[in-house]
Design the sequence.
């Protein structure tokens, strides 16, 4: 599970690797960079009409294009898509086939331990480079208007995160970004070295996502 991360708002590392001369150096969303479900974050997608890569703001929690009701009535939990079952879930099937995203981040968070002594962990790449999550995106026309949204793919925890959690987000290496966005074959199981930073133990939050 990955339900909270710090969006990477400085995007030079993406621009240089993906050759995005028109993308902004910094993304301004008028909100904190910490992203939780239903919040917003910058994502990179391929424009399916022009074939160009673009940086767009999107909602964390995918809403499929076939849903046309009200946003307040969408109750499904879709901020994560399990890599092992994503092709079986109708909500993700179209996006898995046609709409891949790269979600830039500085870190993500997990919690471990018993309810009364839970420890918060800030997780970064071991080499201190920015993270790039493998995501899926969609666009739905709702009663409130057009909504662009995304989900993060997750897989079983790797060696670094297994001591604190059984799953982790799929993190792409820079040489995979373009292939993933253009729906070419990518190894989504390859391990990425991560560093865990323990924060002060905290009492359980009201309405915790975890």
Sequence:
């Amino acid at each position: 599970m990955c339900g909270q991360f710090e969006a990477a708002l400085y995007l030079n590392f993406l621009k240089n690797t993906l050759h995005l001369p028109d993308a902004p150096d910094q993304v301004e969303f008028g909100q904190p960079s910490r992203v939780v479900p239903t919040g917003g974050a910058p994502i990179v997608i391929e424009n399916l009409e022009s074939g160009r890569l673009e940086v767009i703001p999107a909602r964390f929690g995918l809403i499929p294009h076939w849903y046309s009701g009200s946003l307040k009535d969408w109750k499904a939990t879709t901020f994560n898509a399990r890599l092992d079952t994503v092709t079986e879930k109708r909500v993700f099937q179209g996006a898995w086939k046609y709409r891949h995203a790269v979600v830039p981040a500085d870190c993500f968070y997990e919690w471990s331990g018993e309810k009364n002594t839970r420890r918060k962990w800030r997780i970064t790449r071991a080499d201190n480079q920015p993270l790039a999550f493998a995501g899926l995106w969609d666009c739905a026309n709702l009663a409130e208007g057009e909504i662009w949204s995304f989900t993060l793919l997750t897989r079983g925890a790797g060696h670094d995160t297994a001591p604190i959690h059984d799953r982790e987000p799929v993190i792409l290496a820079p040489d995979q970004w373009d292939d993933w966005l253009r729906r070419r074959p990518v190894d989504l199981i390859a391990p990425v070295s991560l560093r865990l930073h323990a924060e002060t133990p905290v009492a359980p939050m009201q309405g915790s996502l975890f």
